[in-house]
Amino acid sequence: MAKKKNQVQSPAVNLGVQHRKTLWKQMKSRWQIYLLLLLPLIYIIIFAYVPMGGLIIAFKDYNFRDGIFGSPWVGFDNFIEFFTGRYFPVVVPNTIILAAYSLVVTFPIPIIFALLLNALPGRKYKKVIQTVTYIPHFISVIVMVGLLYQILNYRTGLYGAIYSAITGATAPDILAKGSNFYHLYVWSAVWQSTGYNAIIYIAALAGVDQELHEAATIDGASRFQRVLYIDVPSILPTASIMLILAIGNVMNIGFEKAFAMQNSLNMNYSEIISTYVYKVGLAMGITDFSLSTAVGMFNSVINFVLLLTANWGSKKLSGSGIF
To answer: What is d(CA 253, CA 153) in angstroms, rounded to the nearest whole number?
Structure first.
């Protein structure tokens, strides 16, 4: 009797075994799809998860001779050095200001653009506008910064020529004023990314049932009312997911563009965490990998906390989140 009792399995165990068998059968029947998934999975493991082991450098006084695990342990000394250093009051506020400014401006504009484009009656006009607005996204950051500096040159640029033609005087050099860095960075990003970022919202609007618009038109709703009460609610779930992702990545201000736009006149405004990490680790002759890793880790932790907070807030307000 004892043997028979021991051989009896619980329903939960049986269900688990059956589920594993079913999953294995599905994987065998679709092995080509899983084979395609293998390469990106290996890529993510090698370039995203394996390097996480290097974060231990942030807690060590790293040197090449002893290696990562042989270098002496210093605990939180690298973080304390950053928090008490003279660059902390510069790079952190600059990063926060630029990140908040970018989020407030660059997030809603693609949504508004998609709504306006969807409201246009002519299909040909939509295609032309979409194509024209997509093009700047494919211009490299360095080329875009070069164009920006050429156009805004106060003597030989388009801005300087127009100003001199209208006023007869030499234009003020807006590139020489450091505080203009924020505006140039953000609004050039609007020009470059609005069309491309609007794609996902245009796709969401394309899935809206046209019978809703027809019923609203019969009831006497104006075009603005249809946009407000039909189109906007239809893209809210998509917008909430994109907002969570944007907030979770808000502190990762693009290094290439900020570094390319830096000069001696705007350094107090353009020095952000990503450029500081690069200079400390490679460019300033310091090669302090431990400090640069600690600063990068601090930035990643802030992003992670913001991502969790945004996801929690989205679930509370709209009931949707990414996890």
So the answer is: 25
pLDDT at 192: 92
Count the Cβ atoms, other than its own, within 10 Å of residue 190: 16
Q: Of 251, 267, 248, which is closest to residue 259 (Cα–Cα)?
A: 267
d(CA 65, CA 297): 23
- The two most distant CA atoms of the chain are separated, in Å, by 106
Give, as one character, the DSSP assignment of residue 61.
Answer: -
Tally of CB atoms within 10 A around 64: 8
H/E stretch holding 136 reads none
| Token pair 């065998």: residue | 28
Check pLDDT > 80 for residue 172.
yes
DSSP 8-state assignment for residue 65: T
pLDDT digits (tens, 9 = 90+) for 216-267: 888 888 888 888 889 998 888 888 888 888 888 888 887 889 999 988 888 8
Residue 310 Cα distances to 34, 59, 271, 300, angstroms: 33, 29, 26, 15
Kindly report each contact of residues 74-78 with a partner whose C-beta sits within 8 Å and lies 24 or more positions away, as own/partner.
74/290, 78/290, 78/291, 78/293, 78/294
The backbone torsions φ and ψ at residue 251, rounded to the nearest 5 degrees and listed phi first, read -85, -10
Per residue in 56-77, pLDDT (tens digit) is 899 998 888 888 888 899 989 9
Specify the 3-state DSSP secondary structure of 78.
helix
Burial category of 214 from C-beta neighbours within 10 Å (exposed 0-12, middle 13-18, buried 19 and up):
exposed
Listed in sequence order, the residues at least 6 apart from 21 whose beta carbon sits closer than 8 Å to its beta carbon are none
pTM: 0.81
CATH number 3.40.50.1370 given to 75-318: no
Q: Name the H helices within the chain.
A: 2-7, 11-29, 31-44, 67-70, 77-84, 88-106, 108-119, 123-134, 141-151, 158-167, 180-197, 199-206, 210-218, 223-226, 232-248, 255-261, 267-270, 273-278, 289-318
Domain boundaries, the chain: 75-318
Residue in 219, 193, 228, 246 with CA at minimum distance from that of residue 118: 228
